[in-house]
Amino acid sequence: MKALVTGGAGFIGSHLVDHLVESGFEVVVVDDLSMGAISNIKHWEQITIYVADVCDDKFMQQLLADERPDYIYFLAAIASVADSIERPAETHAVNHTAVFNLLEHIRQIRLPIKQFLFTSSAAVYGNLPELPKREDSRVAPVSPYAIDKYATERFVLAYGELYDLPTVCVRFFNVYGPRQNPSSPYSGVLSILTDCLKTQRPFTLFGDGTQTRDFVYVSDVIKALWLITEHQVQHEVINIANGLETSLNGIIQMYQEIAGQQLEIKRAEQRGGEVDHSVASIGKLARLNYESEWPLRRGLTKYWEGECEHARS
Ligand code: NAD
Ligand code: UD1
To answer: Which residue ranges does the record assign to the NAD-dependent epimerase/dehydratase domain (predicted)?
Structure first.
């Protein structure tokens, strides 16, 4: 079995690639290394890596024809809400058009895929009051990132139904863990917090810290993705989360306790396009026999210990 992972050198993608290789898959990665790194991939010497842009349509078309993957996991994206507000046109090209074009090539060449999995986001739910978010909850995307994710989901599912393609969409909530790149001001908050704790730099808190998120450890995410592949799930949207709502103030407090350090916190205005409260219902995932192995404190402790070990080696 051959799997194509776009964004496979990134945070979540590299963990998925490791798992696929360890499960006996032949793996092909396309990543432009804008946020990812080949060194993220444990088994990089066993896979084929194309350092390329998923928006390069000609390249992607040729890649499909040459590699003919059985499974496609589309993770390449500009993954930041705030970045999409700064650069809506650039992020739209990656987060929407590139996925649509790939689907269209699959349809045109009638590639006999076993699964096409698109990684969407909890951001699609926006700021509507009902919590926890179920897959059939109303959506109200408020940023270019969230709008692109939702529009792409609709195409992925419609292509599945209309052209009989085994497509599925997952909505990740806030994923954290090793290899999340903290280098951009738009990086995931837990990678930035980790970096601030490691380097004793001040942390900028946007808003009053009462905003909530559902933080999920990356190993649990890979376990969920694998269940979705094993069960050959298609024509569905599935939340991937922990099912626990935590405020930013709460997670900062917990992380300081784990690290045994106090952070210097600078206050700044809330960012535009923000979701105030987020937590998932994970009933659909549980029906695939999913159980979390990484409750928040355990996951954060593992992440912190890994970072300290890394710094020592
Ligand atoms: P990431 O930035 O680590 O991974 C994305 C990868 O895509 C990076 O390696 C980057 O170099 C690559 N990439 C970006 N633009 C590209 C392009 N034009 N061509 C080729 N490669 C390109 O982010 P991540 O957190 O691993 O996110 C993976 C996916 O999951 C994304 O689609 C993201 O939107 C989605 N997601 C992530 C989270 C989260 O909390 N991390 C939550 C919801 C959804
Ligand atoms: C994150 C993901 C996004 C995903 C979404 C799903 C990243 C970069 N973003 O967006 O891909 O679709 O979850 O829910 O992985 N914050 C600070 N200081 C900082 C950085 C962030 O206070 O230095 C705050 C933000 O304003 C926000 C919260 O922390 O309120 C979380 O921010 P962030 O990690 O960027 O996550 P989301 O915007 O939820």
So the answer is: 3-241
Q: Are 282 and 218 in contact (CB under 8 A)?
A: no
Torsion-angle region of 41 (φ positive above 0: left; ψ -120 to 50: alpha; else: beta): beta
- Amino acid identity, residue 10? G
Q: Is 12 in the pocket of ligand 1 (CB under 6 A)?
A: yes
Give the N- to C-terminal CA distance of the chain in Å, as an integer: 36
Q: Which domain holds residue 253?
A: 175-213+244-280+294-305
Q: Probe ligand 2: pick from 213, 240, 244, 303, max atoms within 8 Å of CB?
A: 213
What distance in Å separates the CA atoms of residue 210 and residue 24, rounded to the nearest whole number? Answer: 44
The 8-class DSSP code of residue 281 comes to -
Q: Count of domains in the chain?
A: 2
Give the CATH number, domain containing residue 84: 3.40.50.720
Residue 37 token pair: 């790194």
Tell me the CATH number at 253. 3.90.25.10
For the chain, residues with pLDDT lower than 70 are none
Select from 91, 147, 169, 189 the residue to mutate for testing ligand 2; criterion: most ligand atoms less than 8 Å from CB: 189
pLDDT in tens, 229-267: 999 999 999 999 999 999 999 999 999 999 999 999 999
